[in-house]
Amino acid sequence: MDGVGAFSLLLSGDPALFAIVRLSLFVTLSAVMLAAAFGLPFGAFVALTQFRGRGGVIVALNALMGLPPVVVGLLVFLALSRSGPLGFLGLLFTPGAMIIAQAILIAPIIAALTRQVIEDLWVEYCDEFTAMDVSPLGRVAALLWDGRFSLVTIFLAGFGRAAAEVGAVMIVGGNIDGFTRVMTTTIALETSKGNLPLAIGLGLVLIAIVVAVNTLAWSVRQWSERHAG
Amino acid sequence: MLDGGAIGRTAQPVMRLHGVGYRSGNTDILSDVELTIAAGVPTLLLGPNGSGKTTLLRLLMGLIGPSEGRVDVSAVDGVNTARRAFVFQKPVMLKRSTAANVSFALSAAGFPVDPLVVASLLQRVGLAALADRPARMLSGGEQQRLALARALARQPGILFLDEPTASLDPAQTKAVEDVVAAIAATGVIIVMATHDLGQARRLAGDVVFLVGGRVLEQTPATQFFDQPKTQAARRFLAGDLVI
Ligand SMILES: Nc1ncnc2c1ncn2[C@@H]1O[C@H](COP(=O)(O)OP(=O)(O)OP(=O)(O)O)[C@@H](O)[C@H]1O
Ligand SMILES: [Mg+2]
Fold it and tell me: Is the Cβ–Cβ distance between B151 and B85 less than 8 Å?
């Protein structure tokens, strides 16, 4: 019966439900962009430069890929709370705080995987680039371009992780109805309240989004293998 | 002991190696290399597997520096010795189309990317029909020819080739040898590693015979094949293993 209720909710185009889905997508897409703005250049920088402590940075990035979302939520909460160092921004319990938390969660993933992709390509291309006299800027551009399909799948992986995450956004967003309530926090709340149709309906949407993202990632890989080698 | 090959003929020396050694960790990969690369005739590096041909080419190209000794480069009229190109033994294709690989080499060398130039370079190595194919999907031999096209795109003064015909069939080997001979005729200095003795005979340049990281002979090809001076060279030519 709950399943039927869920479908009728979805099919009736319940505005509250769609507002929640829209906010979820907005928060997660913004977080991916923010994380990529940091993770992509940082990953490429670590891949292409030698500096003291580089090994440590790589180990740290890899370790940070597994950051527990609730811990990230807690840290962002502490930083943004009224008495915290960034309290003056007034971001706590806003979508902005949720974007920051998700971005922190996935920035290490994007940075670590970008580092891996760019470095692997660089090892392959190094001699050719040196022999062809490619300028430093030209090298970075060529590596990013030739790694573009792998990079897109990295962004999609980050999107998937952020979209499915509940702990961090719950803590820093506060799950405020109509303002910071996203799919995952709504599912958690409505399930505990016993409102199963909404929880199941949102669960289905979430699964559909994750499946769609993975299908997209897979297609990108297939396409790139066929067309770019 | 070495007669200096091209030295003493009309050819002008371009690069000279004096007592060059190259060490990786505790291993001596090249030792006491005395060598002259001259304009006018191709220089052919011959030697068994692991004798140091690739390492010597990388050193001449400037990809690695010598652990000891000196590499001198002299100016030669009409040759831009600073503009060098390298066809690697295992060339790496950019993840782009065949044509885009050539365009990339052109622009890296500071030339405008002219589709007509790209097309004519591909024509020259027999890849015109595959211009739009992803380069990594080309066969091994096609990739080697694409690497040659990329090298030619640089309009090099010195062209280093590391066994450029190793995975080519006889017809393509001949085609690549013709391209190499043609650019040699335009004054480009060719330094090529090979262990194809027939090829060394056909290109008829100056042979540098390497064994175990040492140059055992540098002599004109005809002399190397007809009257090898060292026992090792005689055994190498006879097909016996020399290590
Ligand atoms: N970076 C390196 N570190 C250690 N040993 C190396 C390195 N590069 C090459 N060698 C060794 O040096 C020797 C010469 O290698 P090189 O690749 O120059 O030989 P080659 O004459 O080109 O052989 P082939 O005909 O098989 O291509 C080999 O024994 C190889 O294992
Ligand atoms: Mg070699």
Answer: yes
